[in-house]
Amino acid sequence: MSFTLTEWFAVLPGTSSAAQRATSHLKAADPGACVLARRDGQPWIIGRSTRALTVAHSAGRTAALIGAHDVGEGQLAQALPLAAADGSAGALMCWAGSYHAVLATSDETWVCGDVAGMRPVFWVECGDAVLVGDHARLLAKATGTVTIDTAYLALHLLGPVPPLALAESGATGYQGVRAVPPGSALRLDGVGRTTVRQWWRVPDDERTLGEGAPVLRDALRRAIAVRTDGESVVGCELSGGADSTALSALAYGHVGGERLINLTRAPADPGNDDLDWARRAAGAQPGARHDILDVGVVPAQFLGLEAPFALDAPSPSAASPRRAAFWWDHAASAEVRVLLSGKGGDELMPTALSYLTHARRRDRAASRRHIKGWAALWGVPEQRVKAQAADPGPYQRWLADCLTRGRDDSPGWEAGPYAPPWLTGWARTMLADTLRAAADSAEPLHERPHQHATMAAIRALARWNRLQSDAASPFGIQLAYPYADQQVIEAALATRAEARTSPYQNKPLLMAAMSGLVPAANLARRTKGGYSSDTAAAARPARAMFAKLLSDDSELARCGLIDPDRLRTALHGWDRADDRTDLLLHLTLMCEVWARTTSNRPLPTLVPFEETPC
């Protein structure tokens, strides 16, 4: 499967011979690259973009916005003095949408990404020049050498996601290429020195439900508008869950039924009632089209691994390329260019049980009601809920010990992490030592553990979502994730946690925001569909293929990260695995596919899908 990015940029580092060599490498990596913006008459930003960049000049300063927004040149020019005074260019990130901002003055350049990580910033030293861009793989190619960072690869074998302190340590999958944490900006001075400065912080959760709901509704509306205005057809991935249903309803209200196409993939599990709820939501939208792709029509998971997407980092999309391609091809055949996705809502709206500790200080009666509610919902004693809601202690101490707890379910600042049983002793020790070292200087994203946990989950999913967006772009599809936009995140996180999550209602803040827009029955839904049956059905006939891919000759084994014998045992029982093992197997598979692709090592000729003993 051929793969060419249709959205990327790099800020040119000047006119030195090293800069010219780096530019030549970039153009060799993508011959279709062109000049996207100029400064003082010279090429300034190169790459590819489906949208024209907004560029403004004022008083010796030049700024560019790259991505989805509705900011005009005049509005950007008016913001330049404030952005220069801000000292990080973060003032240019105040508008709706998802984009990068680049600000250049006579003696420095600032490059800002977003707060979730959908718009990352990377940099690399190329001789005596520094090259900045939004794709680590391309920057690695610009140096002339692409070498995998083994420690980074090991980190992505941890489930459910790597600890934030390591994921945002600056490392990438490529030796020499560095990453800027979301919510921070990279400053490059006139002699090539780099500085990273934080410009955004997680807000306190102080708004009431009544105050927060209209703010969230307006933020979601603006997020949809900046992506869909001017589009003749707009697509929405309508699973039937609360998050996608909200986006579908808002899109319907903004673009009208004749321009909206809802896309639903039928689940394999007959006990999953998502499809019924998707039909109910679409039925309330006269004139809108609803495409339902039945089981058996969509290719199974894991098909197409012999020709994966070449992405910046390990991604679930790379583990099922034919399935993803079919979905995007179908959307493109319906003339969809912008496809709205509700992914991220599950991370933004609920929150860790530690919210109860803070809620108790604010409203003891409300906290008691929630404790009783969770205990009744889960069928456990109230004392167990209180134990899970306890303060997890200092962040640095939790981080230093988080990998050595085994299957301990004590409260934490983040989900997991847990290591796969097939991880080698060397890899486990290396990761534990790295975590202990990182803990010395690590700071949480917010002093309230539940706020940190929510933002950490948002950023973890954004790392995958932006890779999925890259994979979709060659199909002519611009994936849009409104729940990862700064204004949407701020609207939710500034609302009290006990209003965002509750044992008595699913996502009460979102439901309040959508009142009157989404059918009342959908607002009252209490079930949630699961897709483990789909994975089990796909894994069963693929076991022989997995065994060949993850053999003694696998890239992960060569790097000393996995024990192939232990992994073979787990692969043989994948279709009967618990949720944790299932996830760890998925992570291992996607890491192997990425490592082989990055190393330009051909994937093995895979056996047909059939019941072949491992």
Automatic annotation (TrEMBL):
InterPro entries: Asn_synthase (IPR001962), ASN_synthetase/amidase (IPR051786), Ntn_hydrolases_N (IPR029055), Rossmann-like_a/b/a_fold (IPR014729)
Pathway: Amino-acid biosynthesis; L-asparagine biosynthesis; L-asparagine from L-aspartate (L-Gln route): step 1/1
Keyword annotations from UniProtKB, A to Z: Amino-acid biosynthesis, Asparagine biosynthesis
Catalytically driven reaction(s): L-aspartate + L-glutamine + ATP + H2O = L-asparagine + L-glutamate + AMP + diphosphate + H(+)
Signal peptide extent: none
Domain Asparagine synthetase: residue ranges: 216-596
Enzyme Commission number: 6.3.5.4
The name this protein goes by in its record: asparagine synthase (glutamine-hydrolyzing)
Entry annotated with the keyword Amino-acid biosynthesis: yes
Enzyme class, broadest EC rank: ligase
One Pfam family from the record: Asn_synthase
